[in-house]
Amino acid sequence: MRTFEEIKNTIETGLGKHPCDLRLTNVKLVNVFSGEIYPTDIYIKNKRIVSIEPGAVLEALETVDCGGAYAVPGLIDSHMHFESTMLSPEALSSVVVPHGTTTLCADLMEIANVAGEEGLRAMLQSIDRLPYRMLIEVSSRVPTAPGLETNGATLGAEQVAQIMDWEESVSLGELDPSKILFVKDEYIHKVADTLARRKIVNGHAIGRLGQELNVYASSGISDDHECVTKEELLSRLRVGMRVLVREGSTERNVDALISGALELGCSTDNLCFCTDDKHAGEIMEEGHINYNVRRAIELGMAPMQAIQMATINAARHFRMDDEIGSITPGRLADILLIDDLTKMEPKAVYFEGQLVARSKALLQECAVSAYPGWIKDTVHLKHPITADSFRCPAKNPDAVETQAHVIGLIDVQIINNDLVCTLPVQNGEIQRDLDNDILKLAVVERYGKTGGVGVGFVKGFSLKKGALAYSMSHDHHNIVAVGVNDADMAVAVNEVARLHGGLAVACDGKVVSSMCLPIGGLMSECSAGEVMRLLDDMNEATRALGCDMPAPFMTLSFISLPTVPELGLTDMGLVDVLEHRLIDVEL
């Protein structure tokens, strides 16, 4: 909120009554409002832009010659989850800010599902010293699938409404179609309370088309980040929803959607960019939102349009274009200096008028806070986990084989297929089919409430031996494990529990590699560099077992999601996502 004093001081500075704090001279301004690029100077006072007038001559305490660089607004990630990066908000700054991202719109549903409102407050404790802006998409689904999963906390409609009044809150977080199409009053109350505050509702319309999509949009849903085809993109635009074009670690949609938008010739005014879930190492290697912009340009989009998607389009969508998204008078001075728009590599990043990054590095590291002890003690197994925990009895114990539902992975997507496969039965138990890459999958309840273990099967992991386990399994965040044998799955799960959350690789009855994620069992207390090094070691250990996926643990974390078609697995069992009900593994 801008105060009377701030507004008056900005006006008087523009009139020459006070010196500016900073003058960026010799820039080519990328004006995303007018769609122009032209030479000028930029004047800044008290975090805000005072003037971009080419003919202005104002006094400034500091002048920086930008050498003819382009001045681009700070980039906006319109939907992401901190927890998937495995980094704390502080550690993440060294990864995203040097790439030019100055605003993150974060749905903290992962930590909320683990630790509720107190978990959200713990995540926000460092917000005032971050070199970027954290905006909150208030989690709408805590739990995500009531009656189909066990999670750690609940956020009811009244509590969500209270959190929506927090200064950082800009929207209601992603709401899946089941909550609308099954006319669930609690969630409709959350939508109504949000719209009454003139804030928006984020969507999650995966797999929905036709009249179902119309009904979904009619409830007040504003956007969708789950499009994977040009047809889905167009269908969302036609019903008045913005499309958040996503490029994550396992959900790579930029190529298909940008190419499709260009082919269709549709307006890009209602397209934005997001990452949703992306590992820190991949951000460091290829970029963050600047990668999305660069790739869009490579695919044939005009640089101005691509930059507008990453800046002013997102700001308008969240009704914050009076504060961010452009380099125009009165807005906060989030500015990137870039020599080549087609490469989108910032040589300098200014956040609210302060230089925070130069030459792909933060000028000052943001130290990780001391998180409270209770949030690092969220993993409690009710019962000991052994190989017998993962038994999958056949309906007919005398059968030799049976028909079963198998989760079929789809490359670089989080959606999956419901495969009906013939699996062997031995000693009355349904077995894996290693020759056809069908492995056993399990989700172990980790809050000490029920001790439930859901068991199913998955195709596409390519493990030849051993097992993996991870304490992030969307959105309930129980321990998910996949393996070639039950004994190694038990070893991996028990190692994750011993660490109070994390990742584990096991083989031949031993832990091969593990990594601790103590903050809610989701995030590390280490620096970004250390987390990336540890994750590289984990991925290498996984490759040694035969899995050649680029992001095996990210893939593992999504398999259990009970809101992404066609199947999910929770601690309660196998979920038919579109029907929103538990089903038997065996037909």
Low-confidence parts, pLDDT < 50 over ≥5 residues? none
Q: Structural class, judged by helices and strands?
A: alpha/beta
Note the overall shape: elongated
Mean pLDDT: 96
Q: Can you offer a commentary on this structure?
A:
By secondary structure, the protein is of the alpha/beta class. The strands form five sheets. Strands 1, 2, 3, 4, 5, 14, 15, 16 and 17 form a nine-stranded mixed beta sheet that branches. β19 (416-426) and β20 (429-430) form a beta hairpin. α8 (230-238) crosses α9. The longest helix has 16 residues, at 528-543.
Q: Which features would summarize this protein structure in a list?
A:
587 residues; nine-stranded mixed beta sheet
Explain briefly what this protein structure is.
It contains 16 helices and 29 strands.
Write the layout of secondary structure elements.
Layout: H1 4-14, E1 22-31, E2 36-45, E3 48-51, E4 63-65, E5 70-73, E6 75-80, H2 89-96, E7 101-106, H3 109-123, E8 133-138, H4 157-164, E9 169-175, H5 178-181, H6 185-196, E10 200-203, H7 210-218, E11 223-224, H8 230-238, E12 242-246, H9 254-264, E13 271-274, H10 280-286, H11 289-298, H12 303-310, H13 312-317, E14 335-338, E15 346-351, E16 354-358, E17 361-362, E18 401-409, E19 416-426, E20 429-430, E21 438-444, E22 453-459, E23 467-470, E24 479-483, H14 486-498, E25 502-507, E26 510-516, H15 528-543, H16 552-559, E27 567-570, E28 573-576, E29 581-583
Parallel strand pairs: 1-4, 1-5, 6-7, 7-8, 8-9, 9-10, 11-12, 12-13, 18-22
Antiparallel strand pairs: 1-2, 2-3, 5-14, 14-15, 15-16, 16-17, 18-19, 19-20, 21-22, 21-24, 23-24, 23-25, 25-26, 27-28, 28-29
Helix pairs in contact: 4-6, 8-9, 11-12
